[in-house]
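Hi team,

Filling in the usual template for the complex we talked about on Friday. All components are listed, including any nucleic acid strands or ligand strings, so the model treats them as one assembly.

SUBMITTER: L.P.
PURPOSE: interface mapping
COMPONENTS: three
RESIDUES: 1100
SEQUENCES:
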Amino acid sequence: MTAVNPAGCRPEMGPAQHPAHEDAPRLTNSGDRALMLEEALIFELGRFDATGVDIDEPELEPLPALSGFLRKAAPALPGLTEPETVRHYTRLSRQNYAIDLGPFPLGSCTMKHNPRLNEKVARMPGFADVHPLQPVQTVQGALKVINELAHWLITLTGMHGVAMTPKAGAHGELCGVLCIKSAIEARGEDRTVMLVPESAHGTNPATAAFAGFSIENIPANADGRVDLEALKARLGPDVAGLMITNPNTCGLFERDMKAISDAVHAAGGYVYCDGANFNAIVGKVRPGDLGVDAMHINLHKTFSTPHGGGGPGSGPVVLSKALCPYGPIPFTELFEDGHLTLVDEETAGARQPHSFGRMAAFHGQMGMFTRALTYILSHGADGLRQVAEDAVLNANYVLRSLDGELDAPFGKAGPCMHEALFSDDSLPEGFSTLDIAKGLIDEGFHPMTVYFPLVVHGAMLIEPTETESKAGLDRFIGSMRSLAQRAKAGDTSLKSAPHFAPRRRLDETQAARKPVLAWKGDSGA
Amino acid sequence: MRYLPLTPANRTEMLGVIGAATIDDLFVDVPAEAHLSGPIADLPMHASEMAVERHMGALAAQNISAGSVPFFLGAGAYKHHIPASVDHLIQRGEFLTAYTPYQPEIAQGTLQVLFEFQTQVARLFGVEIANASMYDGSTACWEAVAMAGRVTKRSRAVLSRGLHPHYAATITTMAKFTGDSIDAQPPRLVGEPSPDGLISGIDDTTSCVVVQYPDVLGRIPDLAAIADAAHAKGALLVVVVTEPVALGLLEAPGNLGADIVVGEGQSLGVGLQFGGPYLGLFGCREKFVRQMPGRLCGETVDAEGKRGFVLTLSTREQHIRREKATSNICTNAGLCALAFSVHMTLLGGTGLAKLARVNHAKAQQTAKRLAAVPGVSLLNTSYFNEFTLILPRDAREVVRELADQRILAGVSLGRLFPGVANLANGLLVTATECTTAEDIEAFAVALEGVLA
Amino acid sequence: MPLYYTQDHEWIDVDGDTGTVGITDYAQGQLGDITFVELPEPGATLKKGDAPCVVDSVKAASDVYAPVSGTVTEANAALEGEPELVNTDPESGGWLFRLTLSNTSELGGLMDRAAYDEYVAGL
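RESULT (copied from the run log):
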């Protein structure tokens, strides 16, 4: 398979093959350019008297129950009819890159295919149109979904229990850290320090700080992993625990993980594992076998629920036997006759007396549970294992194919897991990681994660996931090589990339200096 | 496997390029004792699309869906009609399968939606700015309390008795760990909530007063009086709106003195989904912008001068500020925010006001009919689309008995406030545009039956 | 008016017991476009090494440390509307805050211009 899509312009065609570019008009009257469609704001398009919803207004009685509270004027929200609405959002959608369009190799984000069966199932009225406070006798199927997914998560991770209610990964981290804090308080101890490796996601220190811990960094060793000796030297009676990511943010498996856990436990602390990278090991390794006490699972990463342009997420937390008693309410409880109930404020005193409490209204991200369970059942125990293997294989293929063209700081240390990490060391003076990222946009790809982890200069973190075919990877690798070579040849057009995207580089300084966070103009007049 | 494009031949060829003999050579860093040699026992193997759909369909069939029966539940989650185009648009792959818009040149679709969403929320709430959304109403409510602490440099929050108990519990849980002091009490069964008790709890150490509007029993509190009292002591007024449709008729909290307005946006565009994912709304006065949690989208220009949008003021957030961030939140509820925004665009201010009038009218019809059932009385003096009935016996039992007759009668106060004896006979009933005259009559007749 | 410098790239200009604090031209160059400056409240008491002030760029938030101990008397109000002054005029119009020194002997530990230039050249 060629590295270039044969349907489009190919390098051998040369610039002379594009005479149309020479005499193409720069501007159009509409501002649009064929399928490159611009779209105004709804506040510019809409009208106060327009609506796209027909509502049968019943005979209105007077409003005595509202008198004195009525608003003086209708909200200044313009409306659009249905065809205008569909067009507005459809035109906007075309300014987005998405997994449905091509590779989205954002390291640490696990942008895999979102199966449409998940969407179909989540929209079954029995799941989509059920109220969280219906009597439990009317929602047995919903409780079974939670329970069945919980069973899978516990089994796949080799842990003791799972808290299903956290609403996203960072919320799950908070859940795990609050369990640790509660367990330490229950022991009557005062441990105030949470250890966090330098390469950690920002949510780790932010979460631990929120829970009242002070943060201390643990350095990495030369091959990109936690320095076990430095960790051991710091452990002591003031340390509550360690928040570690495994596989870590350099895309490497923490091969000393068991020794790390043993050391933390011996010092009286707990091990929190950031499960953002679980996709690399699902079905291959159980974190419970490595001494982990708590780990969140981003259902939108490993288990394919859609990222939706930034959420919603879902972050169940698997817990060790030591931390389970402190987990949040509510949760499902299965009785011998097969029926399920919810343990909430009413029964927590008897069933979960040491719970640290409730983290959010209702029972968790049910809409994500149905999607994740659908995905899990589709793959099964064998397919999930294949997912991890293909994700790791794809990343190593990228690592070896680009090592040499780009600097792979840990490339000599052995295979990576599901992410290939490069630095900007081999880029010539004047060219940065950002230029490669923006160049990738012109090549028709979403850029990789850039400038993270912080421990590598000008980091480029590539996570292809198991979704990419070999042909797709070859095209991506071809583009990456081409960009690296253009930088080395001093091609300054890379400095102003992207050239072909809906927008050129945006002025983020102006946005932050003079924030405009809402439309201020009159609208709908 | 239908979701995995690599063929066995691909895998062999790629291992050759890598220089590995087997796939397990790539897992060499995993300690041998933790390396599973095959699929985990006792878990099923992969299944066809048809088989999975059948299994999940069977589970779905064990639930009674709101649209299939007379349905009167609310209490922070509401059954509204979602126009078909909303669900179509949020399933566009460019929205559904995009990530957080960190590369703005190829994410203007998501970013412009967020900018429009922020503006819609700010205008609905009557405040200058709103963020790009949070997990849900309850977590947004805690974030508001935490933010009020940062703004006022105080740590004592006073919660109104009319605050949803799950919201109060969420705040209380978080405060245990941050050291904030929280005053929270269950509601009193009176038709008109008096602000006096709340106001007397405000002093010079109070960071904020948290008031739900309409409150958990459906009553409408006098925000202006509470705002004046809070401001007199240097405290902020945080207003919580769990039913945004109400703001089609009710004055916006920002216009009544609220400093921070948070809410649950599920009512517009987002289905009931057994409790999540929902949509946290968060708006405030512009002067507090640097203390806000969550993502913000702002307007700017690109290198050619074209208008464009970016995520901005990121130095507040965890990925930059780490342990000094305003919140540990990373994600927002992007797709739910899109659904809310599309629905709001379809309605417009005029449509929202009309929808609100219909909701109120249906609630009036429902209240009138149910209060005519012998032994049943209406508690509320004021309400929007939700009100509290006092039954002659434990409302939890009544709800269960009516559910056996396939009538979902409302939320018993015993479910919301377990163990609070004097609330046990209370039943919270909601009507929306989805409620029909037949539903109301069926409910009333069945209620008469179980109370007879 | 003697100018002193710290290894964290702050400068302090001292007139009697009043000091004016800012960040150096080198520091602003490293930070890039400054988008916001979080300034201390007048009356705040600072110990040498406290971080009363934060300078934001688009992708970073950097603490500014007090070069000496003292009490804040004034913050540079011009930065509220024009944070870019820290970029364009870091060692004069882009000053951050003034304080009354509580221990002038702490100045002895700071660098003069020549020593600072040499320090920067070695980075």
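MY TAKE: Chain B has 14 helices and 13 strands. Chain B has a mean pLDDT of 95.

Thanks, L.
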